[in-house]
Amino acid sequence: MSQRAETVRRSATYGLLSAGLLLMTAPFLWMALSAFKTTEDLAARPPVWLPMTWTLEHFRDLFTVLDLPQYFFNSVVVATLVTAGNLLFCSMFGYALAKLQFFGRGPLFGLVLAGLMVPANLLLLPQFVLISRMEMLNSYAGLILPFLAGAFGVFLMRQFMLSIPDELLEAARIDGASEWFIFWRIVMPLVKPALATLAIFTFLGSWNNFLWPLVITNDPDKYTLPVAIATFAIDPTSSSGSNGMLMAGALLVVLPVLGVFVALQRYFTQGIATAGLK
Question: Each residue of 159-218: pLDDT tens digit?
Fold first, then answer.
């Protein structure tokens, strides 16, 4: 292939990728810019991308209309504890399935695979009945308990831990190390990329979870941020300028997820890079 043809091919590739990136990020950019627009800019026809006048009035109004600190606190508590629970329990279960020999290991892994095939919405009713009978409606426990471990997390950690040499663990056992010591001091530091990947996916799913908090909570003090903003969106008494507040609220929902991804992206990309070497 000539140098000119190679240049044309590379330029076309970058052009297509840039177009795809613009297409994917356009809704987010519109939301972020709209949060700082005045009511007049939001109602302008044809629509304007950049605000003619930058303003923070929608953020101020959002704190006035909604008890935003409480909803933000609820979301942080639920998402953090769900993520921590998945990192702990999925890692422990994945280690047992990957490195320990015990009766029924194969059928248990089969149940994990079966759990991956069951749609989450199908479990909504039995989970609600169970939480209701345990008297955990309108509580943090009801929001957190059903999601402390998931089949995807167990599968991910199990597959990643299979790459750890068995000889390394056997050497530690010969030296007198307990399984708990091996798990915490040897295995867990080696699976940081998988833990970062699981943390990002779990935090993202829990933070954006809308249906489950909506179903089991009718107390506004236990609303998470997505539920509170959605409830405000369908409120027939909301003012005509509420679109700007909705954009501001959506931006506040997105920012913590971006922060988690930025903090863990080094491990996340490392996990993707090493996945093909296993």
Answer: 889 888 888 888 888 888 888 898 998 899 888 888 988 988 899 889 988 889 988 988
Q: Is the peptide bond before 69 cis (omega within 30 degrees of 0)?
A: no
- How far is residue 112 from each of residues 119, 209, 275, measured CA to CA in Å? 13, 22, 21
The count of other CB atoms within 10 Å of the CB of residue 173 is 12
- Beta-carbon contacts of 268 under 8 Å, excluding residues fewer than 6 positions away, are 193, 196, 197, 200, 261
Nearby residues of 190 by Cβ (< 8 Å), 6 or more positions away: 164
Nearest one of 21, 72, 40, 61 to 246, comparing CA atoms: 61
Residue count of the chain: 278
Q: For the stretch 240-253, what's the b/e string if a residue is b when 16 or more beta carbons lie within 10 angstroms of its beta carbon?
A: eebbbbbbbbbbbb
Q: Which residues of the chain have pLDDT under 70?
A: 1-2, 233-242, 267-278
pLDDT of residue 276: 42
Please report the pLDDT score of residue 196 as a whole number: 86
End-to-end CA distance of the chain: 33
| Residue type (1 letter), 19 | A
d(CA 166, CA 98): 10
Dihedral angle sign, alpha carbons of residues 37, 41, 42, 46:
negative
What is the C-alpha to C-alpha distance for residues 15 and 243, in angstroms, rounded to an integer?
A: 34
Compute the C-alpha angle 202/82/180, nearest 5°: 95
Percent of the chain residues past pLDDT 70, beyond the cut = 91
d(CA 238, CA 122): 34
Amino acid code (one letter) for 127: Q
Cα separation, 234 vs 231, whole angstroms: 6
